[in-house]
Amino acid sequence: MVATQEYKVIGTRPIRHDGLDKVTGRAIYGADVKLPDMLYGFVLRSPHAHARIRSIDTSAAEAMPGVVAVMTANDMPEAADELVDLGEGAINFSHASDHIMAMSKAKFKGHPVAAVAATSTNVAREAVAAIKVDWEVLKSAVTVDEALAPDAPVILDGWVGDDLGEKSTKPNVGSHFRHEFGDIEKGFADSTTIIEHRYDLAMVHQGYIEPHNGTAIWDQEDRVRLWTSTQGAFTVRTQLAGILQLDESRIKVTPTEIGGGFGGKIPIYVEPLAAILSKKSGGKPVRILMDRPEVFEATGPTPGGWVSVRLGVKDRKIIAGDADIRFDAGGFPGSPVGAAAMCVFSCYDIENTRIDGWDIIVNKPKTAAYRAPGSTHVAYAIECIIDEICEELDLDPIQFRLDNASKEGTRRGDGPIFPRIGNIETLEAARDSAHWNAPLDKNPGNGNVRGRGIANGYWFNVGLKSSVNLSVNTDGTVMLIEGSTDIGGTRASIAMQAAEVLGIRAEDIIPTVVDTDSVGYTDVTGGSRTTYATGFAAYKAAQNLIDELTARAATIWDIPEDEVVFEDGKFSSKSDPELSMTFKEIAGKLNETGGPVSSTGAVDLENAGGGFAVHICDLEIDPETGKTDVIRYTAVQDVGKAIHPSYVEGQMQGGAVQGIGWALNEEYFMSDDGQMVNSSYLDYRMPTSLDLPEIETVIVEVPNPIHPFGVRGVGEPPIVPPVAAIANAINDALGIRLREAPMNPGRILEALKEKNG
């Protein structure tokens, strides 16, 4: 399905503007930043999942040649106990400060307790090893169930959580909330089929290739300058200001190129430490670069936990839905359980629903966003139960989903009413796809078996704040200044929207991502918002630029401004057909008619228009070993309007691959005492190109009515269906339901053994 509007730039596939720098190695990433007289930092981290700090002796480290500064929590300013929205997620400054440098006790293995700045990385590492910490090791709780047990240890001292508006009586409850609509008890009483199951998922990491880093200068004017790999420079500035107790105007953040993020590079980890070490070093620049075990053990993975869903059906309609969602937040409250509650019933029109969400503190790293945070978890539960209903009632799995699909006017489980959405169109495209209609040989003759699974998924997307500045060069090119970190080709997608308005080529827009001093406030590259929101800001800036150039054309022709029209890249007179100039021609006359022309566009978008994705998976399984191979995979998604189809396809494929890894292999494998034992890419098994077929894509375009080009966010919906689609494919192949991910060979063999007695 395609949108009917015709465009000249949008929908084409130009080479991305930053492509040459990336493939030639000229692009500057965080680890490439080198400043005069720079020092190198390293962090001492807790070897225990839960332990009180009796004392820290840094004297040996301070005495070592080459060591310039040493810090502990005593050097951290006292941050306010204040919750601030970061656009995708929120931060409590007091908790964030304690997270970045442990105050009284370590709450997870890898929790920082001291840091050193030295003349080389090796010296810094040696100095860290010389620091002596007297630990009192405490009992740990690393799962939701352990943290809620009657004998659970108190992890966050002094914390009292909220339990449905009352003070929680359980010490490790971050929060417990409920959304309820209709008459849930009557709905289940009227149901003729009721199915309920619990689904467990392990904590997993985003798996970005570039480690976290930060290079900071805290100068003699009490200003902090920072270079870092981040999804949002302004978000970093906000966090630094709260943690360091500085006005935002005293902080300048320059985002470097980013080697992946997927939500995991919204929080900060080493940046405040680099800044404080710089201050203690007399203003010398300090760079801290994490190694891979540090990234796994001390940054923000997506939560583990479990989801229990109960569905009631009557006359092929889902009439009641009940969900209990419990996520581990890590050592501090703040898991994405709220987003999960927004998504759990979003694909279906259910009159009676109840959703309970639990945010649980555990002795693991504080969780962060990971591409549609929380939605993959709940899709695993509900999409498997949907398939189980279809099995029990002998219903077609796509038709049943269509018969119950949410649409414009449907109430989402947490309350909002859907505007125009593409859920039905996406399901229809999956139903009509070549993959769904292709035969599947379930017994290929090699002793293996095959199965096909399908699942639906949703992400609500966000809008938020973005700013774009445009300025015209006399050769007809346009400089585009933006504050959105480019993770997946958004320089191109934003430039293309400006070019479409201006009637020029995408290549004639020169986009640059700048620091926090050089453009208006812009929220994070996250929530599938960048092409949508920053693109909208570019659209407005381009419209404003046309107004400025219209005035210049009127001056040149000595006619009233309202006599000038702009269409298809040309300015012309309404009354005199001889008066006409292209965009490039008028740009060449700017210095003759008043000098430079520039414009600004800014947005603060409350709504974004949700995105739906349906995935189909064919899986081959060896029953003797439990080994699985994805042999065909198709991702179908409503994208509103594909600005750059190649990058849209790439997002769909990338999200699917990450979801496949989550389904089959990836997990934080934890020991009983809270140690992650697979904190390297040798042991943390992510899929590579050798593990997968080409991911087929079907782009559906149901224009978003609140965006000038119909754009919907693309990046997050494709990670939502894979875990459920693979679980359904395993069931189709083997007749077993796996309700714990990852669904690795060991779990498959265990289930087969149980099935066969």
Question: Alpha-carbon distance between the termini?
Answer: 48 Å
Overall form: globular
The CATH topology of one domain: Aldehyde Oxidoreductase, domain 4
CATH architecture of one domain: 2-Layer Sandwich
DSSP summary: helix tally: 20
The biggest sheet amounts to: 8 strands, mixed
Helix/strand-derived category reads alpha+beta
The share of residues in extended strands comes to 25-35%
Identify the CATH class of one domain: Alpha Beta
Low-confidence blocks of residues: none
CATH homologous superfamily identity of one domain? Aldehyde oxidase/xanthine dehydrogenase, molybdopterin binding domain
Question: How confident overall, as mean pLDDT?
Answer: 97
**Would you report the number of β strands?**
31
Q: Order the strands across the largest sheet as they lie in space.
A: 10-9-11-19-18-17-12-31
| CA-based gyration radius | 27 Å
Helix share bin? 25-40%
Please give a structural write-up.
With about 750 residues, the protein is an alpha+beta fold. Among the domains are: about 20-25 and about 460-605, Aldehyde Oxidoreductase, domain 4 (2-Layer Sandwich); about 375-415 and about 420-460 and about 610-755, Aldehyde Oxidoreductase, domain 4 (2-Layer Sandwich). Helices cover about 25% and strands about 25% of the residues. The strands form seven sheets. Strands 10-9-11-19-18-17-12-31 form an eight-stranded mixed beta sheet, sandwiched between helices. The protein has a seven-stranded mixed beta sheet with strand order 3-7-1-16-13-14-15. It has a four-stranded mixed beta sheet with strand order 20-28-29-30, sandwiched between helices. α10 (about 335-345) packs parallel to α11, α12 (about 395-405) packs antiparallel against α13 (about 425-430) and α15 (about 490-500) runs parallel beside α16. The longest helix has 28 residues, at about 530-555. The two termini are about 50 Å apart.
